[in-house]
Amino acid sequence: GTPPNWDPPELILATHGTPGRVAGALGGAVGGVWGGPLSVAVFGVPRKGLGELLAVLGGPCRGLRGRLRLHVVVGAAAPPPPPAGSPNSGPPPAPGGCRGALRRLAAADPPSYTLGVPYPGNLLGGPTQNGGPGPPQIGGRFVLLLDADVVPSRGLRDEFLGPGAPLDRVVFVLPAFEVREGTRVPGTKAELQRLWALGDARPFYGALCPRCQAPTGYGRWWALPPAPHLRVAYEAPWQDPWEPFYVGPAPDVPPFDQRFLQYGFNRISQACELHVAGFRFAVLDGAFVVHRGFKAAGGFHGGREAELQRNRQLFRRFRAELRQRYPRSPRHC
Question: Which UniProt keywords apply (predicted)?
């Protein structure tokens, strides 16, 4: 039977970004689609944007705070941020309510490569994995960590937490797509399929790194017969250089390696460690994630190749360290 004081499992949506990107996520599709708890890490640069975000969360968006755990990451030498809603946390927000204030912050957000410091994506992803607001639950917590501009399909949280016990040492992979800029983000597989047929949807990073999502098995996923509920459709073997988005048990999945900065190898390295640590990858049918806009080769800043090269060298060392960290594992990557 159910143990005494048992709390049902919870699924937390986690994300991270600069103040403007966090504002865009909370005020856009992520905030609208997701009705459950949120765990968000915000990079405290630029300082002005951080103050404005905290002011908005302490003012017109106060209603979000009951389901939001906010982690603020600043440099060791930086002064601590003012509390949300304090007189010094930023200027009073302009009229327009919560959503309007968040959209204005998002519109003023500078690109992360202009901040003057490398964006610490894996460092920011770490605290969000600890879960959402409130004390730890006996029933367990699951986390879906997404980029700030990636949106889950409708109903994922309710269906994932429905009948059926999650499997042990398993992460649940959500097929990832990108849709053409200006296209309404699909909420169901049927809506996604219509966009796919029109050429307005394709695999995430499909034009830049097809191998990075290929292990998901898109052809197999599309060929599945319709199902009335969310389900595990099949298990996919890990392959390099997979970058899956997944739901995982918050206390069990290995943390992201904080040495990877800016772009490249952050999800690849963590998926690699999941594989070596003995996790299996179960692909869900009836749920997916979507990035708004097609990723194109010319859409990145000039220093990206140097960042990738640095992280590529770091990844070689990371793989060697895994052999020492998991000496009994028969797996390697």
Answer: Glycoprotein, Glycosyltransferase, Golgi apparatus, Manganese, Membrane, Metal-binding, Signal-anchor, Transferase, Transmembrane, Transmembrane helix
Q: Is 312 helix (H, G, I), strand (E, B) or coil?
A: helix
| 10-17 vs 141-145, strand pairing mode | parallel
For residue 158, which phi and psi values (nearest 5 degrees)? -65, -40
Rounded mean pLDDT, 233-240: 96
Query: pTM here?
Result: 0.87
Round to whole Å and give the CA distance between 25 and 42.
Answer: 11
Cβ partners under 8 Å of residue 135, min gap 6: none
Q: Given strand 176-179, what is the order of strands in its sheet?
A: 150-152, 289-292, 176-179, 201-203
Residues 31 and 27: their CA atoms lie apart, in Å, by 6
Q: Which of 243, 190, 172, 228 is nearest to 11 (CA)?
A: 172
**Running DSSP on this structure, what letter comes out for residue 13?**
E
Cα separation of 45 and 120, whole Å?
11
Q: Cα–Cα distance between 319 and 326 in angstroms, integer?
A: 11
Give the pLDDT confidence of 55-113 residue by residue, as tens digits: 999 999 998 888 899 999 887 656 666 665 554 455 555 567 899 999 999 998 887 66
CA–CA separation, 312 and 223 (whole Å) = 35
User: Under a CB-based contact definition with an 8 Å cutoff, are residues 135 and 142 in contact?
Assistant: no
Contact between 56 and 105 (Cβ < 8 Å): yes
Which H or E run includes 203? strand 201-203
Per-residue tokens: 3: 């143990």
Write the burial class of residue 309 (CB in 10 Å: 0-12 exposed, 13-18 middle, 19+ buried): exposed
CA gyration radius for the chain? Answer: 20
Which structure tokens are listed for 176?
């990832």
Contact assessment for residue 285 and residue 159, using Cβ atoms and an 8 Å cutoff = no
Alpha-helix runs per DSSP H in the chain = 19-27, 29-33, 47-58, 97-107, 121-128, 156-160, 189-198, 218-222, 266-276, 304-325
Which residue shows structure tokens 């944007």? 49
Question: How far apart, in Å, are the Cα atoms of 82 and each of 22, 52, 97?
Answer: 18, 10, 22
